[in-house]
Amino acid sequence: MKRLLLLATLALATATASRAEVPEVRIARQFSMGYLQFNVIEHEKLIQKHAALLGIPEVKVSAFRFNGPAAMNDALLSDSVDIVGGSPHGMFTLWAKTQGTKQEVRAITALVTLPFFITSNDPDIKTIADLGKCKKIPVPSVRVSSPAVAVQMAAAKQFGIKDYARFDSATVTMSPADATVALLGGVGEINCTLALPPFVQQQLEHSNIHVVANSFDLMGGPNTYTLAYTSMKFHDRDPKLFQAVYNALNEATDRVTQDIRTAAKYWIEDSDSKLTVDFVAAAGSGKDVQYTTVPNRTMQGADFMAEVGTIKVKPKSWKDYFFPEAYGMPGS
């Protein structure tokens, strides 16, 4: 009897320990449509699906939303989140700082290639040369977000690389949604924005808003806007779980490409947006928008940030800041 009781106790302890060790994946993303794969992953439980296929029966997936890359990067470094959706430029700052450590940060896959735009409600601001007339320029995070780097590239293109920071003093941290409200309402000193889908489409419905510059022109052509990244610690801790995340991102990319309307519905729900599905789906399927896991022209951004000293390490190849699982792709 004592032996049976001991066996039962051991079995209960083992089961309790097993439940306590259920792995968790904590995902962080921002506000724009550059992270539709994350919306699909959450709603359709794709990480859990691929984890089960790899022999992991249960995974807890949690999602968090941040205003910009600076806060997300802090959360990743403090081990408060595991997977981050953000700009290559925000990722570069972490990669350069953490190289060679257990917390080294690298990209998992690209998420989307899409253009964003410098817009204005001031008719006198027509070209890059006029950006000095922008009183304030909202960006998700100053200096490290893609829009902030685009402003620097605009300055470098117009005035030379030594003058890349000419407009930095005008940039302020603000979510794309709040920036759009401020621009449309003529609030405060916001007379320019860096507009992302679907917010740029909202802005351009108003006749007093116009495009000053296109990010593709500033950055030398179509380029990856967002990617998913994590730490070496997460990558190495449970290779099967990382593979499940990688596989889920690939499936989610296919889903977004094939069914943008469903992805738009998920984004609206997760963002508490009042926009219609038709509007969001159209914004997410423009002729220059491509949801793809393949990194596109990311090295141009890394080279620029290294040249101006924002990052202290210059990568030799895009593979330097991606995990090996992505090496088979035709990246750049």
Briefly say what this structure is.
The chain has 332 residues and is of the alpha/beta class. It has helices spanning 2-20, 36-44, 46-53, 69-77, 88-98, 146-159, 176-185, 199-204, 215-218, 232-237, 239-258, 260-271, 277-283, 298-308, and strands at 24-29, 60-65, 83-86, 105-113, 117-120, 137-139, 171-173, 192-195, 210-214, 224-231, 290-291.
How would you describe this structure to a colleague?
This protein has 332 residues and is of the alpha/beta class. The protein folds into 2 domains: 24-114 and 223-326, D-Maltodextrin-Binding Protein, domain 2; 117-218, Periplasmic binding protein-like II (D-Maltodextrin-Binding Protein, domain 2), CATH 3.40.190. The protein has helices at 2-20, 36-44, 46-53, 69-77, 88-98, 146-159, 176-185, 199-204, 215-218, 232-237, 239-258, 260-271, 277-283, 298-308; strands at 24-29, 60-65, 83-86, 105-113, 117-120, 137-139, 171-173, 192-195, 210-214, 224-231, 290-291. Strand 6, helix 6 (146-159) and strand 7 form a beta-alpha-beta unit. Helix 2 crosses helix 11 and helix 3 (46-53) packs across helix 11. The longest helix has 20 residues, at 239-258. The radius of gyration is 22 Å and the shape is globular.
